[in-house]
Specification:
The protein has 194 residues and is an alpha+beta fold. It folds into two domains: 3-71, Orthogonal Bundle (434 Repressor (Amino-terminal Domain)); 89-187, Jelly Rolls. The chain has helices spanning 3-22, 27-34, 38-45, 53-62, 67-71, and strands at 89-92, 98-104, 110-118, 123-126, 134-141, 144-148, 151-155, 160-164, 169-172, 179-187. α2 packs across α4 (53-62).
């Protein structure tokens, strides 16, 4: 684990523990609400585990927050400027790919801006997000395969897609060049996007 990874894990553990206590939730109750094992939650809160993006999404939703609420500074200012050094790398693939949360709004309704890189042969399998969640994807370089079960779409450089990710989905780089793409996630818990 790199120093930056340790910084993210420490920040996540503190934020999750604080939000859970502020909401007067026991470890058992939060684990049940988030559909995450109590053992995993204890490891996350102790800073002994780096949770997956899917686990972060579940915990954020159960806490009435967004993933951005758990990893970035937020306040009530007219603008919040995040320095390039802010710790937001939330996934590292087996071949060196990355998923970085660039910026996101407060939750539970939320918008997030991500940058991804998948190396050749790499795949990220995503769990279903809440009903109505959409992702806007723009491929910068390489070719991105977007899969929903047996149905796949290939998005080439300069191409974009609107993906309805309230079902299991996957991103893959099946070509010989890394796939780099930008993604906006729109997740509405109040039924606004139904």
């Amino acid at each position: 684990m790199t120093a930056a990874d340790r910084q993210v894990v420490k920040l996540l553990s503190e934020r999750i523990k604080t939000r859970r206590r502020d909401r007067r939730l026991s470890l058992d109750r939060l684990a049940a609400l988030a559909d995450v094992s109590k053992g995993a939650l204890v490891q996350i809160e102790n800073g002994d585990a780096n949770p997956s993006i899917a686990t972060l999404c579940k915990l954020a939703a159960a806490l009435g927050a967004s993933v951005a609420d758990l990893v970035q500074v937020s306040g009530q200012h007219p603008a919040e400027v995040l320095p390039a050094s802010a710790p937001r790398l939330l996934w590292r693939g087996p071949k060196g790919g990355t998923a970085t949360l660039l910026v996101g709004s407060s939750g539970p309704d939320m918008l997030e801006l991500w940058t991804w890189e998948l190396r050749p042969g790499e795949r990220y399998d995503g769990q279903a997000h809440p009903a109505g969640t959409q992702e806007l994807i723009h491929v910068v370089s390489g070719a991105l395969t977007l899969a929903f079960g047996e149905v796949s779409y290939v998005i080439r450089p300069g191409g974009s897609a609107v993906a309805h990710t309230d079902r299991p989905h996957a991103y893959a780089c099946e070509g010989k060049r890394a796939a780099r793409f930008t993604m906006v996630v729109a997740e509405w818990h109040g039924g606004r996007a139904a």
